[in-house]
Amino acid sequence: MIRNPFSASTFPYRAPTVPLTVEPRAAEQKLGAHYESEWARKMPARYARYLLTEGMVRPIIAGLAQPERRGLDRLTDLDGPAIFAGNHHSHLDAGLLITSIPEPHRHQVFAGAAADYFFDNRLKAMASALVLNAIPIDRSKVARRSADQAAGLIDDGWSMVIFPEGGRSPDGWGQPFRGGAAYLAIRCNVPVVPVHLAGTGRILPKGKNRPKPSRTVVTFGAPMRAHEGERSQAFSDRVERAVAALADEATTDWYSARRRAAAGETPSLSAPPSGVWRRAWSVSGSRKKRGSTTKPWPDLS
Fold first, then answer.
1. Strand locations in the chain, DSSP E?
2. pLDDT class for 300, splitting at 50, 70, 90?
3. Is 3.40.50.720 the CATH classification of the domain at 63-111+145-271?
4. What is the pLDDT of residues 96-136, one digit of tens each?
5. Where are the beta strands (DSSP E) in 4-72?
6. What confidence tier does 233 reach under pLDDT thresholds 50, 70, 90?
């Protein structure tokens, strides 16, 4: 019997078989940290993202977050790409921050997003890349692939939105900043713009799926550059302190916050060293102190 060479069951109409003595090649990974998002920076995707940002994302953010944007005058002289680094309490943070960045940076920005969450399936990965112009960042380890991709985009003139805490706050308190944003700023010789986002934890905190509209405040700080010979962790610590000072400014006033910053007395973003219940109590108390009209507990001392 003569075998038909054009049969669909033979090579090249299907993948060739692997000899038994040869170890099969591992399947190529296409999601997570390996997701290729370059298509999202092609002109068709950029035009689509512009329409989505201005026609859908900004109105949704305006309705949910009612943002008050402060410190935009500090970005007047910002020229070229920058890294916008903020605190992280909610999945709303990326959209709120991107839509708050002034022109022309708003439409020349990409986001560093968690590879294990935003790129774990194809639909979510495509949506993240298109709407946020996101690239996958591996949170479990220091990955050269992610750093090289981010650095390449910054060198090409793109600004970056990143949350140095590495994940959303589990209890309303800030987490220590990792050195990724500072490392990229030093490597690419660009400034870091510290940003504080207040109120997003009330809208869509970690563990919740249904947003609850509330007022937010987005406060931009002055662009910062690394000092000569400064290591990335030291620079990251300075950025964290700058974000803490913006938090103080947002909840009190500019003059008082500046005085405390000059004296080294700015309240930390981190939680006090106490139990979980007391951390939650402290957060609740500070929120009531800032925005509630209820009567305080009587002073029994």
1. 67-70, 83-86, 109-114, 134-137, 159-162, 192-198, 216-220
2. very low
3. no
4. 999 999 988 999 999 999 888 889 899 999 999 999 999 99
5. 67-70
6. very high
What lies within 8 Å, CB to CB, of 45 at 6+ separation is: 39, 129, 130
Look at residues 91, 105, 85, 92 and name the one whose alpha carbon lies nearest to residue 62.
92
Distance CA 100, CA 59 (A): 12
Check if the beta carbon of residue 111 is closer than 8 Å to that of residue 135. Answer: yes
Residue positions counted in the chain? 301
What distance in Å separates the CA atoms of residue 255 and residue 125, rounded to the nearest whole number? 43
d(CA 81, CA 61): 24
Q: Give pLDDT tens digits for 59-75.
A: 999 999 999 999 999 99
What does the block give as tokens for 119?
Answer: 């790129």
SS3 172: coil
Calpha distance 281→173 (Å, rounded): 11
Q: Note whether 48 and 130 are within 8 A (CB).
A: yes
Instruction: Indicate if the pLDDT at residue 3 is higher than 70.
Output: no
Whole-number Å distance between alpha carbons of 248 and 229: 29
Across 179-298, the runs of DSSP E, i.e. the strands, are: 192-198, 216-220
Of the candidate ranges 114-123, 194-203, 230-239, 266-275, the one whose mean pLDDT is the lowest: 266-275
